[in-house]
Write a structure and sequence with these properties.
The chain is of the alpha+beta class.
């Protein structure tokens, strides 16, 4: 591709090769991102999860720790991602009976020159994978779905809020 054709692609150089964007001149701002993932389970597996009666132990506690670790290690997983000084990472779990599922919501925050969307998304995906791992002894056909960004704020592009995401983020 010609340089002119590459102009709209921030992660490609003039020759079309992948590159890490230089964010050194971008202003440092407060950044926040919220992501979600959904883990679809049987009613029986959900009940075992709720009662902390799974053979591998407390799956939600493990998934929360894994989400935090994943956010902290996103730079090692996403090739063109920047190392960020995370201010906080959290994971919340909503257990729903109908249909039986766990809705995972992760939130990552930093003060820096680039956003934390990837950290929140990787955290949600990892928490979902850990729930699968912790529950697979009793159910193999678990489905992980609906991994998406719900909210982001900070930086040049400002606020993004996915349709239906109503929670106020401070």
């Amino acid at each position: 591709m010609k340089e002119k054709e590459q102009a709209g692609f921030t992660h490609l150089d003039a020759e079309g090769r992948a590159r890490m964007v230089d964010v050194g001149q971008k202003p440092v701002t407060r950044r926040v991102a919220v992501a979600e993932a959904v883990v679809e389970l049987s009613a029986h597996t959900l009940e075992l999860l709720r009662e902390k009666a799974l053979p591998k132990g407390d799956a939600l506690a493990c998934a929360k720790i894994a989400a935090i670790l994943a956010a902290k290690n996103t730079v090692s997983l996403i090739p063109l991602c920047h190392t960020l000084p995370l201010d906080s990472v959290d994971a919340r779990f909503e257990l729903c009976d109908t249909p039986p599922r766990v809705r995972i919501e992760t939130e990552a925050r930093c003060t820096g020159p680039t956003g934390v969307e990837m950290e929140a998304i990787v955290a949600a995906q990892t928490a979902a994978a850990v729930l699968y791992d912790m529950c697979k002894a009793v159910q193999r056909d678990i489905v992980i779905s609906r991994v998406r960004l719900l909210y982001k704020n900070g930086g040049r592009s400002g606020e993004f809020r996915a349709p239906g995401f109503e929670r106020q983020v401070e």
